[in-house]
């Protein structure tokens, strides 16, 4: 239709404006490859360092983190903790050492321990000459192969202004866009790309180390236009969902048997994929989805459901129909909830069972989201 043709033209132009799909880093012929991370305080820079390390490690590299942010309280401790979580070496001599020396010695440390050195530099609340001067000295001392600017997608125009300042002061190679799970559309990507003239290399869309991926302009264009981002959602599912559990669930689907244990397993699988609001943001605009995207999804509701199911006996989870009034009171007490919460969960489970039976019989159910106000 003419409408679809217009949308396609706009989509393709947006993707072109946001640059090529080549998000790859420049790797050194002789290791280590040096990555210098810059950004304002609160942009998620330190966390992005650890996420990049985890991403590269998964790709077969041997990253090493270097703690050169000696000004922000607990910045070094945070990086050391994150390094332990993603299981990579970290060089952190302390807050009383000159950042330039830390960077230089850290690169030597990385040469012995791995093949990629990721340097976390000082963030500031505002752009200032001291920050830029120190960043320039570190750059001159270690001669990085990649200088990446970390930008918070949630800060809107502030993100654009910061990107412009760094572009003018420091020669950037690319951008990492963080907190994209909170930015429903991702329009900041378009502005930052236009201002810096540099490609967006990666996006961070959650709190977990795995919530980090290459930037795809075509997928971001789809999100900006409200067309969803199904490809990224599929990739997330493939990376987090256990294949054996998925096969077992398929068998249960065929038999139309869906217990509360299965419901708990599905809940855990979904949580591995990141915040529900982020997952909903990747879904294309089906009827009723706009309201769900705009709604504040209560992540704690998942905690409550889990607490209720874990307060049941194995027999009750397999056969919820035996849960009478006294059992409901016991489950409510054990989970710190009310009897109404138990009733709501059992009703939700019955609706999901009904959905399974419809799917197994080949009937397409009406779209609805049990337990989410759908």
As a percent range, the share of helical residues equals 40-55%
Instruction: Give start-end ranges of low-pLDDT stretches.
Output: 285-297, 364-374
Nearest-integer average pLDDT: 80
What summary fits the major beta sheet?
Answer: 8 strands, mixed
**Large-scale geometry:** elongated
Describe the structure.
With 374 residues, the chain is of the alpha/beta class. 53% of the residues lie in helices and 10% in strands. The chain has 17 helices and 8 strands. The protein has helices at 2-17, 45-58, 75-86, 99-113, 129-142, 157-169, 188-196, 217-224, 230-240, 243-255, 260-272, 276-282, 289-294, 300-310, 314-318, 325-335, 339-360; strands spanning 33-39, 63-67, 90-91, 116-120, 146-152, 174-178, 200-204, 212-214. The chain has an 8-stranded mixed β-sheet, sandwiched between helices. Strand 6, helix 7 (188-196) and strand 7 (200-204) form a beta-alpha-beta unit. Helix 6 (157-169) runs parallel beside helix 7 and helix 16 packs across helix 17. The longest helix has 22 residues, at 339-360. 36% of the residues are buried. Residues 285-297 and 364-374 have low confidence and may be disordered.
């Amino acid at each position: 239709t003419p409408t679809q043709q217009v949308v396609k033209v706009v989509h393709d132009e947006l993707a072109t404006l946001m640059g090529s799909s080549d998000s790859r880093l420049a790797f050194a012929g002789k290791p280590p490859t040096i990555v210098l991370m810059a950004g304002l305080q609160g942009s998620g820079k330190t966390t992005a360092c650890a996420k990049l390390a985890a991403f590269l490690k998964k790709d077969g590299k041997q990253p090493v983190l270097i703690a050169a942010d000696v000004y922000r309280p607990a910045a070094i401790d945070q990086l050391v903790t994150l390094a332990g979580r993603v299981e990579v070496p970290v060089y952190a001599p302390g807050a009383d050492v000159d950042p330039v020396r830390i960077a230089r010695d850290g690169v030597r440390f990385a040469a012995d321990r791995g093949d990629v050195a990721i340097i976390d530099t000082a963030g500031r609340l505002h752009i200032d000459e001291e920050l830029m001067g120190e960043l320039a000295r570190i750059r001159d001392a270690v001669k990085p192969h990649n200088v990446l600017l970390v930008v918070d997608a949630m800060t809107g125009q502030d993100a654009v202004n910061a990107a412009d300042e760094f572009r003018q002061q420091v020669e950037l190679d690319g951008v990492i866009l963080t907190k994209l799970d909170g930015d429903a559309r991702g329009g900041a990507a378009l502005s930052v790309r236009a201002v810096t003239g540099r490609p967006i290399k990666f996006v961070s869309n959650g709190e977990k180390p795995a919530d980090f991926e290459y930037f795809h302009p075509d997928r971001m264009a789809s999100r900006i236009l409200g067309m969803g981002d199904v490809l990224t959602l599929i990739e997330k599912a493939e990376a987090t969902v256990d294949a054996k559990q998925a096969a077992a669930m398929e068998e249960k689907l065929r038999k139309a048997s869906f217990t509360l244990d299965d419901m708990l397993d599905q809940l855990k699988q979904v949580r591995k994929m990141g915040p529900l609001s982020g997952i909903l943001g990747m879904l294309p605009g089906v009827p009723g989805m706009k309201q769900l995207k705009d709604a504040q999804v209560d992540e704690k509701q998942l905690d409550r459901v889990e607490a209720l199911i874990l307060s049941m006996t194995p027999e009750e989870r397999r056969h919820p129909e035996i849960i009478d009034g006294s059992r409901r009171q016991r489950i409510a007490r054990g989970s710190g909830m009310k009897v109404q919460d138990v009733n709501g969960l059992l009703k939700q489970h019955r609706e999901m069972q009904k959905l399974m039976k419809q799917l197994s019989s080949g009937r397409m159910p009406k779209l609805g989201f049990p337990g989410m106000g759908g």
